Amino acid sequence: MAGSGYTDLREKLKSMMPYRDGHKGGGGGGLPREPPEPPYDRKRRHQEDSGSEPSDYEEQKEEEEARKVKSGIRQLRLFSAEECAKIEARIDDVVSRAEKGLYKEHTVDRAPLRNKYFFGEGYTYGSQLQRRGPGQERLYPRGEVDAIPEWVHDLVIRKLVEHRVIPEGFVNSAVINDYQPGGCIVSHVDPIHIFERPIVSVSFFSDSALCFGCKFQFKPIRVSEPVLFLPVKRGSVTVLSGYAADEITHCIRPQDIKERRAVIILRKTRLDAPRLETKSLSSSVLPPGYNSDRLSGSNRDQILKPKRSHRKADPDAAHRPRILEMDKEENRRSVLLPKHRRRSNFSSENYWRRSYEYTEDCDEEEEDGSPARKTVEHGFPSQPSALAYDPVLRVMAIGTKAGAVKLYGAPGVELTGLHKETATVTQLHFLPGQGWLLSLLDDNTLHLWEVCQKEGCSHLEETRSFGLPGRPGSGSANCSPGITRVTVVLPVSVGAVVCLGTEGGAVYFLTLPTLTLLEDKTLFPDEILQSVPDDYRCGKALGPVESIQEHPRDGSQLLIGYSRGLVVLWEQSTRTVQHLFLGNQQLESLAWEQSGKSIVSSHSDGGYMVWAVSGTGQRTQQPVMSTIPYGPFPCKAISKILWRTCESGNPFIIFSGGMPRASYGDRHCVTVLQGQSLATLDFTSRVIDFFTVQSAEVPEGGFENPRALVVLVEEELVAIDLQTPGWPTIPAPYLAPLHSSAITCSCHVSNVPLKLWERIVSVGEQQSPRQSSAAWPIDGGKNLAQEPTQRGLLLTGHEDGTVRFWDASGVSLKPLYKLGTASIFQTDCEHNDSLNQAGEEEWPPFRKVGCFDPYSDDPRLGVQKIALCKYTAKMVVAGTAGQVLVMELSDEKSEHAVSVATVDLLQDREGFTWKGHDRLAPRNGPLPFAPGFQPSVLVQCVPPAAVTAVTLHSEWNLVAFGTSHGFGLFDYYRRNPVLARCTLHPNDSLAMEGPLSRVKSLKKSLRQSFRRIRKSRVSGKKRLNASSPSSKVQEANAQLAEQAGPPEVEMTPVQRRIEPRSADDSLSGVVRCLYFADTFLRDAAHHGPTMWAGTNSGSVFAYALEVPSQEKFSERAVEAVLGKEIQLMHRAPVVAIAVLDGRGNPLPEPYEVSRDLAKAPDMQGSHSMLISSEEQFKVFTLPKVSAKTKFKLTAHEGCRVRKVALVSLASAGSEERLENCLACLTNLGDIHIFTVPSLRPQVHYGCIRKEDISGIASCVFTKHGQGFYLISPSEFERFSLSARNVTEPLCRLEVTRLQDTSCLSNSLMATPKLPQANGTHVPRSPEGQHSPSDSDRSPEEHPAAFSPGPLDSPNSSLENPLDTTGDITVEEVKDFLASSEEAERNLRNASEDETRPTGILIK
Question: Chief localization class (predicted)?
């Protein structure tokens, strides 16, 4: 079978088709000659008949395709056996209803051994098509199929949304495929013109497999070997996107369906998907007598007639010849849409961030590289779901919907853990002071986490888990899982016991830390009902346990509250009811008063009651006080309430919810009440939980005196100072909501001078005078990390026009300063940062707290690019509407007018009309500015397109900026433009529409796509001239490649062919990078200021600048002369440009040399220019611009460059041993490091998931080998490429346990950084731990530290010769500065230079 191209019935097939042998033998025997076979079939048949093993090239090609398929597959194990059984019962109900004819005509589609049930949307396919072929499928008219059943939403879709597999509202089409044994579905691609990506499927009833790249043949049915065989387990979720969904077919083979199997396919239809009209439905689609009333669903056929024959299941059906009338498309590609439109636009930028798909079925590491070292997460946890506080250790814990658990104490004290199960953390509870944390997941399992000590540092480890069994005495068939679903968890301080309240009303007790069930202590509702009066019982159940609270003075007594309203004081030792509180309102929560003499209960009607606890009576029917704070109108429930005593007299009563339902039911509020003082804290996102910070031990008769209130909402954490009048907020040193407005760009500044740092901190403190000066209340643990050796700033630009400055020096990302730009422009709303305080007469007295505000006043305000000079405190902020602001830091407030200059980038070019958004109108006259960065000049680009590149050179007083139309150079000292250059191609019509335009036409994009296809085909045919030397060389190389070489000859790695890009591609004029350098451009003897610009079409423009000296800035203007114009042959977008000095080092930043902060560059030797395109890196000599060396990344790795940076990596042993390297991030999420200028590959990291488009786009490198990228809208992940510069949490928590237990888990990690909730963290292997003897090696000498890829990788070669085969090299160099004699000499040199291609011209 190994040599066979088919897996099924080969011997039987040969016996049934004996003519094949004769045909292979040369066609003898008088047998008729078969028609010519396609090359692909001939190749496979040759392999099958000869029995020869496939060549290395074919194996490599198959492995490469399998890797591409894997890149588009995600698998998750989300549904338990119990959930599967419930869903499978619903599927059986669907089958039953279909048999009874209860569904619409086109809901049910029958085929041999496979039935389909369409819900929401149905479409024609296979034999139903009026015209066969890809792209001919059509959606049925609306209403032709039944709606998606509610159970699909409740049991399937909701779980996928909760685990962020799909977003809310994504699914509008659900299809149930019901396979019998031997059933199959032939190879196909889900219609690209009908369905968005991804395609989500959930499997039930049995295990099966999904195969990719198979070919079906019929009479008898045979299936070829798949490119990839993917096992699909019962209850698993499979997500297809990218290559797996669009570029290769998938199928279900008959031999893989051994038992009945059903799959629910969830998809979203495209808005522009073609749809049949009623009058166009053929007779095969609409039966005779069909009328339009059926479209609305008003009438239904009494009996549903099957469209196709239905046979009983036969296990041997896979081995019987038969014809399937199904969709038989093969390698389907939509002819309606170009390739870039086929890609999914389902990228809410951060939706595919979290990797929740960790399963045993699909958990593979990168084959060609190990992961980069991720060190810490900055920002606010994505989708928090639970909160807990330990008053003894003074630390808090936050759980997330991704199953992550994060502990926070003092700044720098952070511990992280991740549950093995992919489930939402619903509750967290500390055992105070003992370092134990209990987590309850939504799958009804309880987990114990333990703070362990390893090598002097604390780590968080999961040690035990527990799931409640069914209630004893009740059969599993009759016992609903909800009876034992845990609703309340309470660790009891006495006896190391934890109480679990359930929906069934029972209370279970577990021992700690073993989590062993104490069955003899279980408290069932029947035992409580014996003490309840008959008139209160009334035959009604008590309902779920809503709250359990331990008596503050007697740990043996528990206060248990039931949903019906009954509250019981239970004595554990005697198992008796001490007191009954007969409430009649639905209970939400309970809280003790510190002395234990009173309790407070909150209820669903928005009120709370105070009850007296006394020994005089066993039953209390009426509370001491009952009130609805925001009544008398109906109010929402008070979900949680706290009672905290205060020495000043009146206690604090703090509760969440309770708002008037009609007027403010949509508000998210926490109310703080003390005597006559009332504050309604109004948040912009849902309240998750809250707690108060007070002394851990309160003596009898003492007071709690809460210091602070900490509230966790969905998008931020807010602390309120309860000891300062007015209850102001306390600034948080961490967990800042980075996404208070959506992040649009980021920038990192290393080694910030102390003076600038202090000035930024000072102006930031002046921005928030209303904040409390109290210390951060959560201050437990000890930070063991060393103080940062340098100060690092992280700047983030936001959608609302703000730039935020963050202290990124250490583990905690602390906000320093916020810069706003909206006040400079005229917009529709007022721009002030003041909190909208409620008026004195307004009720409720709302008070806005928190800074999360996701709404932008004007999308044109969005910040696109930032540049900061750390030596002169000058800054450039560029935005979406072409605005470029030049700003300078001022310590004093001022009032001045902002100069406005306009730069026309079209240069009066005719035929171009801007159809996008208008420019932002600046405010007139003097404007007030607070201390901080204040604008001096506003440069407005015309047309007002988004700025795509910006750079600042403060020593020359120049700023360069680029858009999709061209680039400009501006002298902000003299406040006049120096240069404007249009980069548009005549066919760049899309560049004139802008990102906010609504005039884009599908018809226009289709027309342009067809034109590009035709042009590429024509140009491909014309590219090779048969008489040209290059074509002959390529023909000879092709012939040599086809010849079989000796086995001992080592073949060079196969390089992919890189297709040249069309010159008239849309948006080819986008300026991708700008760069200033003092280098040699005119000749090899004189250097001077230059400016370089790279575009999307592979063009590089070099300008020689005449910059006057410092003394003559006011007298002479800067001049710019075009020096060289370079065009890359394959027109790959230029990502970055850099100039290297004579020693191969990057040129220093402005003012670094003059201030003795960097070595002076080598101006004696020849300089080199490094051009990084999306496809390769290439080094040229200057000023001649001749190719020196290169590395073709796309040809080797099949990826594209997304981010590039020159980084300085220091040795772990000596900081003075530095090596300059080129760090590159690709579209596959990998990081490659190369030496410069030799471009030798050093290491290859797997860093970001390839599906994480927004994470890759947001990545920013630091100059010392670290980096940041967004793993969610609110979190930056920090990683390190350097063995020396590592920023990670190192901390210690001192715990005191009742039992001396070491960590119960044997899987301690080497660092406190455990696998994170985004699934990208991989534990460090033992090989990654380095001995001290290796610490002083340089990065190049330390392969273990950098985890290089396999030695047989194309990147492992030590030498990288300049090979021009398939090269992305220079097509044309125009030198506008050389004299005619020098040009002739250069031409002679070019003709003699064998390494240069013949297409290089120097004029």
Answer: cytoplasm
